[in-house]
C-alpha cells in the first residue's frame, strides 16, 4: 500500500474504491481519500484522536505516517449521534503515546515498482484500454500499449523514525508515571513514470502543423473537411442558412497560420510516436516516459500528562509538506513546462482534557484546528512573459510578478482527461482552516450507557488571488 495509512480503508467490509486500485505513496490524499460505502451521498468524515481533519472536497487534510498510528477504524453504517458531518464513511485514527520505558523505531523501505507483480485490477484496466484502442481501429497504439510494462517504472525510498518515553531530565524532571512524549518523522522520495491511465494523448502531425490536413480527407471527407471561416456568407438557396468555402485540398495557406504565438506553442508540442496512417489520428502519442514524482515530509508529535488519577491531558500536533510533479507531457520538448508542481503543506493540532468524576462518569473537552493549502504552481509556465510567446510587450508591465505562459486550448487534440492545453490560467490556490471545540459526557449505569455532547466547528475556505 506504499506506506499510505489511508489505504487500510480498502480492507474494510462495505468499502467501495472507485476506479482502478493504484499504488499510493505517503501524502497522496486524492486517491487515498476516495472511498465510499454503498448508497452513501456526500463525503467522508476523517478524524485523528477525535479531532476532525477534513480538508478540501471531503479529503483528509493531513496524513500521519503508519508508525505513528496506534488504531485505525472504519465505520460504514449504524453511526451514533456524534457522527453528523458527513454521510459517507467515518474513518478515525488514534495516535501512539509514550510510556514509562523509552522506545524507538527506525525503518527504511525501498521499492522498485517493476519488481512487483501487476494486480488483477491493473491487468483488467490495461486490457480494457487495449480493447478500446482496437475497437477504434487504432491497432498500432493497441499493440504498443499491450507490449509496454504493466507497471510504471520508478523507485520509492521511504524512511521513518519514532522515539517515545517519559519526559526525563536528570535532577530536573522525572516524568515517569506522569509526563510522556512521542515524536515521529517520515520522509519519502518517489520517482516513477506516469500512471498507465494518464499516457494517452492526441497531438498534431508534422503535416498538420504546416496546415496540411489532406490525409484526413481519406479517412472521412465529410467529417474532416476544413472550411475557410472568413468566407462565411448567406446561402442564397436557403434563407436563414450560411455557407463557407472549403480550403482547396484541405490545406491551409501558410499566411493564415504563421505568427510568433503559433510558432512558440507548436514547437513545444510533442510529435506523434504511434503510426496512424489511413485512420483517425487519435491517441497517436503515448507518454510512457512522462515523470510522476512525489516528495513528502511529515513531523508528528504528542505529549501526554496524567496530573492525577482523575485528570488526564494530551496535546498533539502534525506538520507535513507535499510536492508532486506530474502530467508534464512536454517532457521531451521542454522538460518541466507543463509539470503541475502541486504543493500541499498542512498542519493540525489538538488539546484534550479528560476528567473521570467517578468510575462511571467521564467528562471530556477537546479543542482542535487544522490548516492546509492546495496549490498547482505550474512553475515551468512562470518563466515566460506575454512578449515571450508573441503577445504585445505592454502586457508584461500589466502582469508584473504574476506573468505566466497564457493558457491555449487545442480542441480535437486530447489528453487522458479532455482537450489538450498548454500554458496555464493563474490559480494561486485554495487555503482552508478548520477550528472546533467538543464537549462529551459519558455515564454508565448498570447495563446502560448514556452519552451526550456538543461539537462546534468553524470552516474557512479561501480562494487565493494574486
Describe the structure.
The chain has 466 residues and is mainly beta. It folds into 2 domains: 5-116 and 151-199 and 288-378 and 424-463, no CATH class; 206-286, no CATH class. The chain has helices at 120-135, 139-147, 206-209, 214-219, 254-257, 260-266, 394-399; strands at 45-48, 51-52, 69-75, 90-95, 103-112, 154-166, 168-169, 173-174, 179-193, 200-201, 227-234, 242-246, 285-286, 291-306, 311-325, 342-343, 346-358, 361-376, 408-415, 418-422, 430-445, 448-463. The strands form 6 sheets. Strands 5, 6, 9, 14, 15, 16, 17, 18, 21 and 22 form a 10-stranded antiparallel beta sheet that branches. A 4-stranded mixed beta sheet has the order 2-1-4-3, with no helix packed on it. A hairpin with a 4-residue loop joins strand 14 and strand 15.
Per-chain topology:
Elements: E1 45-48, E2 51-52, E3 69-75, E4 90-95, E5 103-112, H1 120-135, H2 139-147, E6 154-166, E7 168-169, E8 173-174, E9 179-193, E10 200-201, H3 206-209, H4 214-219, E11 227-234, E12 242-246, H5 254-257, H6 260-266, E13 285-286, E14 291-306, E15 311-325, E16 342-343, E17 346-358, E18 361-376, H7 394-399, E19 408-415, E20 418-422, E21 430-445, E22 448-463
Parallel strand pairs: 1-4
Antiparallel strand pairs: 1-2, 3-4, 5-6, 6-9, 7-8, 9-14, 10-13, 11-12, 14-15, 15-16, 15-17, 16-18, 17-18, 18-21, 19-20, 21-22
Helix pairs in contact: 1-2
Class derived from helix and strand content: mainly beta
Strand count, sense and closure of the main sheet?
Answer: 10 strands, antiparallel
Output the number of helix runs. 7
Give helix % range.
10-25%
Cα separation of the termini: 38 Å
Number of domains: 2
The proportion of strand residues reads 35-45%
Amino acid at each position: 500500500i506504499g506506506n499510505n495509512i489511508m489505504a487500510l480503508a480498502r480492507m474494510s467490509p462495505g468499502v467501495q474504491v472507485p476506479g482502478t486500485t493504484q499504488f499510493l505513496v505517503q501524502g497522496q490524499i486524492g486517491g487515498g481519500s476516495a472511498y465510499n460505502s454503498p448508497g452513501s451521498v456526500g463525503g467522508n468524515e476523517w478524524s485523528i484522536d477525535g479531532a476532525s481533519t477534513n480538508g478540501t472536497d471531503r479529503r483528509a487534510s493531513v496524513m500521519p505516517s503508519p508508525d505513528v498510528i496506534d488504531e485505525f477504524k472504519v465505520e460504514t453504517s449504524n453511526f451514533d449521534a456524534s457522527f453528523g458531518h458527513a454521510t459517507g464513511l467515518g474513518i478515525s485514527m488514534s495516535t501512539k503515546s509514550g510510556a514509562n520505558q523509552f522506545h524507538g523505531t527506525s525503518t527504511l523501505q525501498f521499492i522498485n515498482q517493476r519488481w512487483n507483480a501487476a494486480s488483477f485490477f491493473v491487468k483488467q484496466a490495461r486490457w480494457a484500454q487495449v480493447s478500446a484502442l482496437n475497437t477504434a481501429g487504432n491497432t498500432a497504439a493497441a499493440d504498443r500499449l499491450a507490449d509496454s510494462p504493466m507497471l510504471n517504472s520508478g523507485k520509492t525510498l521511504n524512511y521513518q523514525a519514532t522515539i517515545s518515553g517519559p519526559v526525563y531530565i536528570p535532577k530536573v524532571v522525572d516524568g515517569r508515571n506522569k509526563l510522556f512524549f512521542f515524536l515521529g518523522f517520515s520522509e519519502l522520495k518517489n520517482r516513477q513514470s506516469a500512471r498507465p491511465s494518464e499516457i494517452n494523448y492526441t497531438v498534431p502531425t508534422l503535416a498538420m502543423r504546416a496546415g496540411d490536413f489532406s490525409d484526413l480527407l481519406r479517412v472521412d471527407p465529410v467529417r474532416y473537411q476544413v472550411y475557410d471561416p472568413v468566407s462565411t456568407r448567406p446561402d442564397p438557396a436557403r434563407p436563414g442558412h450560411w455557407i463557407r468555402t472549403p480550403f482547396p485540398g484541405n490545406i491551409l495557406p501558410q499566411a493564415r497560420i504563421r505568427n510568433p504565438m503559433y510558432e512558440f506553442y507548436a514547437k513545444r508540442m510533442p510529435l506523434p510516436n504511434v503510426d496512424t496512417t489511413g485512420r483517425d489520428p487519435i491517441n497517436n502519442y503515448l507518454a510512457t516516459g512522462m515523470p510522476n514524482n512525489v516528495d513528502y515530509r511529515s513531523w508528528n508529535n504528542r505529549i501526554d500528562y496524567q496530573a492525577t488519577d482523575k485528570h488526564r491531558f494530551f496535546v498533539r500536533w502534525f506538520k507535513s509538506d507535499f510536492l508532486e510533479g506530474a502530467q508534464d507531457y512536454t517532457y521531451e520538448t521542454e522538460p518541466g513546462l507543463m509539470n503541475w508542481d502541486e504543493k500541499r503543506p498542512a498542519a493540525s493540532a489538538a488539546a484534550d482534557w479528560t476528567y473521570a468524576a467517578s468510575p462511571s462518569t467521564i467528562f471530556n473537552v477537546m479543542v482542535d484546528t487544522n490548516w492546509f493549502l492546495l496549490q498547482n504552481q505550474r512553475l515551468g509556465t512562470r518563466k515566460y512573459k506575454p512578449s515571450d510567446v508573441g503577445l504585445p510587450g505592454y502586457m508584461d508591465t500589466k502582469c508584473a510578478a504574476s506573468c505566466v505562459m497564457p493558457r491555449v486550448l487545442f480542441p480535437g487534440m486530447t489528453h487522458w482527461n479532455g482537450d489538450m492545453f498548454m500554458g496555464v490560467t493563474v490559480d494561486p490556490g485554495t487555503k482552508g482552516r478548520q477550528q472546533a471545540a467538543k464537549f462529551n459526557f459519558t455515564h454508565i449505569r448498570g447495563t446502560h450507557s448514556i452519552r451526550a455532547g456538543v461539537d462546534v466547528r468553524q470552516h474557512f475556505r479561501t480562494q487565493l488571488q494574486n
